[in-house]
Amino acid sequence: MTFSLLHATDFADRLLYNIVPPLKAGMIVLADRYAYTAFARDAARGVDPRWVRELYSFAVRPDLALYFRVPIEVSLDRLLARRVKLKFYEAGMDMGWSANVVESFRLFQGKVLGEYDKLVGEFGLSVVDATGPITNQQREFRRLVAEYLEISREQRDSDVAV
Amino acid sequence: MSSETPTSPSENGANSAITPGHYYGYGLPYLPIEGSPGKIIAIEGTDGVGRTTQIGLLREWLEVQGYGVLETGWTRSPLMQPTIELAKSSNTLNKLTFVLLYATDFADRLEREIIPALKAGFVVLSDRYVFTAMARAGVRGVERQWIRNLYGFAIAPHLVFYLKIDVDTLIRRVLESRGMNYWESGMDLKLGDDIHDSFRAYQRALLREYQSLADEFGFRVVDARRKVNVIQDELRRQIGEFLAASDAPTPTPLAVT
User: Tens place of pLDDT for every residue, chain A, 162 residues?
Assistant: First the structure.
């Protein structure tokens, strides 16, 4: 619970200082992770999902939310290939599910991924297949963003016309 | 940011019927507390009303009766205390981060101190409880339902005593002891440069919030303008009756001399 609340505090601080001012100035804000991370991660830790959603009700709903999806084995392979040391909380070691970091990561992040999949429908996240080459992902990313901006520009133009 | 399927706070949120010793709302699903033998007794009231003095006396009295006593107090968690002090000393806190830091502190003490003590059958004496957070947030204009949902992870105390005082008596008492400080005077609300006027306006607003909480959460109101030992006698009488009526061993009432 303290893990969840500390992240919410950090998010509230960034929301008010880094997100809301540029939004009001009409800029585009690119957020690397958002409240959805908390929804998935906190639920995987056993916090009530309804409570987390109510907690984050102060957050601005993103205009576009993309979810880069990879199977658990792919993300593990990538991290281990780079010889990254798996972090304690990232691996969910605090849950005490396994003394082995890799096994704990597989169990915990597997649960987190399951939660993300539920969020896709609930919040209308756009899914990007993140197993392919970076270039392909970036093209897909740009296509989705361009498509969204195109639509919103058309909407704005028609609003002005009206 | 709520989900597409709206959740109904009235169904499971903080405002459903309150059962002492149970979570107010969704609680901590990974920490079931049903059937814990311990008791939570919270002492609420504004700054300088004499809570800490009364709790010290209650502790001694209960321990003499053979009770295990845990004292816990606002912002006293080892995890958050330094962070909260640091954040208060900078000018970056806003009402939301203020509320969330306090909630984190409370969550830490709940999981690490209060729940283990409850399960072990202790009497938990809480110097302030979530109502302090609700009153302060209320004065600062934080949405009522949101903060009640937030503290849905808290446990409803078995007894809540509200040490009630009027603002004039409070001001004299605070000036006679340690003086007025920035936060207790609500100087962050920018009510004016005069610390006395700000203190008065802020504490008056707080007292209004406490009064409405008293009705909502069923506080036992204690007149805090009286002498320390008179207040203590009243607290002991009520606590003694409550503990005698519950499963706990019966304490013999003692008068304060």
Answer: 899 999 999 999 999 999 999 999 999 999 999 999 999 999 999 999 999 999 999 999 999 999 999 999 998 888 888 877 888 988 899 899 999 999 999 999 999 999 999 999 999 999 999 998 999 999 999 999 999 998 877 877 777 665
Q: Whose CA is closest to B87, among A12, A58, A155, A126?
A: A12
Structural domain boundaries, residue B90: 12-164+219-243
- CA nearest to A8 within chain B: B100
| ipTM greater than cut 0.90 | no
List the single residue in B with minimal CA-CA distance to A16. B94
Q: What is the CATH number of the domain that holds B38?
A: 3.40.50.300
In a domain, B234, yes or no: yes
In a domain, B169, yes or no: no
Nearest to B54 by CA among B223, B248, B193, B244: B223
Closest partner residue to B3 among A17, A47, A123, by Cβ? A123
Residues B180 and A120: their CA atoms lie apart, in Å, by: 52
* Half-sphere exposure in the Cβ direction for B239 (13 Å, CA): 31
Q: Is residue B176 part of a domain?
A: no
User: CB–CB of B150 and A1 under 8 A?
Assistant: no
What domain count does chain B have?
Answer: 1
Residue B36 CB coordination number (10 Å) = 19
